[in-house]
Model the fold of this input.
Amino acid sequence: MAKWYENAVFYELYTRRFRDADGDGFGDFAGVYEKLDYLKDLGIDAIWFPPFFASPLRDGGYDIANYRLVDPRYGTMESVERVFARAHELGMHIMIDLVINHTSDKHLWFESSRRNPDGPYGDYYVWADDDKGHAGTRVIFSATEPSNWTYDPVRGQYYWHRFYKEQPDLNFDSPAVHREVFEIVDFWAEKGVDGFRLDAIPFLYEREGTNNESLPETHAFLAKLRAYLDEKYGGEVCLLAEATTPADENLRYFGTDDAPECNLCFNFLLMTDLFRAPRLGDAAEIRQTCRKLFFGLPKGAAWSNFFRNHDFLTLELLKESQVREMLAWYAPPQGMLNGGIARRLGPVLEYDERVIRALTALLISLPGAPCWYYGDEILMGDDPSLPDRDSVRLSMPWDAVERAQADPNSFLNWLRKALRTRRMCPPLLEGGFEILEGGPPQVFAFRRKAPDGQSVTFSIDFATMEYEWR
Ligand code: GLC
Done:
């Protein structure tokens, strides 16, 4: 029997821009509550909430100042718990972000660490006397950050950060930091959370002479966290990795049957292939990616396949020539920032519903747990003139949702029907996966065969964007 997450349809709900119940211009949990029936009706099985904790919002909430406090702009803890409880009544699961690579520089741990090096929080962060260490480590937010080190005049030392300088990295060599993480996980699991998206997980550890990504110590920590959760919550609490890494490295985030790590991993490689194939009119890249990624996963592990999220459409995993192609096809006039394109599904594919429907049909037919980004069900717009990633984080236009609901030919209604069909089709939920080789180069076809022998064959032609289930 598959675990709840293995083929669930996830929905990333960016609370700040989803539904504003009290009209203060900031989305809130009371607003989410109003729309839970909408999500259920759309065919959503699990909602993922990016961070809604106390935060200066330097990085959309990924700079957490207190892991146990709900930022009052989103509502009260009670309003969050009401949403969790009602979602569960409706049969939906809840995922939240677990941002443990770093905190906000406004977190009390950091305040205390910089003021009192010998105190209890002195070693919670990565401090050094100079900024010479780990030379050559790439800077991810290179548009704003000249270095991964920033000098702190209070402590008189440099601290390490992989993202904004307002997001100091936690020191995973400190056992106390591990204990804090386990306590945070318990706090939220006890509130009814069914899983955690592991934000920026490749960056937990630093070791001189490496690129400081996906180190063995990071995998050991993930195995420890998974063992803890499995033991305590009977394997029902799920870990979903955000690891934008090449295929081989990404696969390692599932761990092994003996030492499992993450239950789900976002499929970043497939994501870029999905945007490339219709422009190339060729299935070779997708076929190659699926051959690499969809076989030999540990028991209970699955990919979370997706198009878009609250970040840039990242080009990190592509070769230079492929990046050039992507920019020529998809970049807004402003071009690319921090290695990605700030565009949404609808606009990036020029609202071409033939293309979008065919790609969506493929996405939901592959093995795994598709993850949908709020607003993309109505092919909502973006605004690339806005800074950073605000372009893809606009307010959900509920009047447009109502219009789409009333229109039998809308993408929204097509998607809802497609998700229903999937839900009623055992081969698409828990069937095996066999790539059908030997067809024309522009066609990608595969068979999903359920344990009871029923099977479905899906094929898509990237030259014509025709697709079919048989
Ligand atoms: C992840 C998040 C992104 C954030 C970064 C730092 O990549 O998805 O939004 O900026 O981590 O926390």
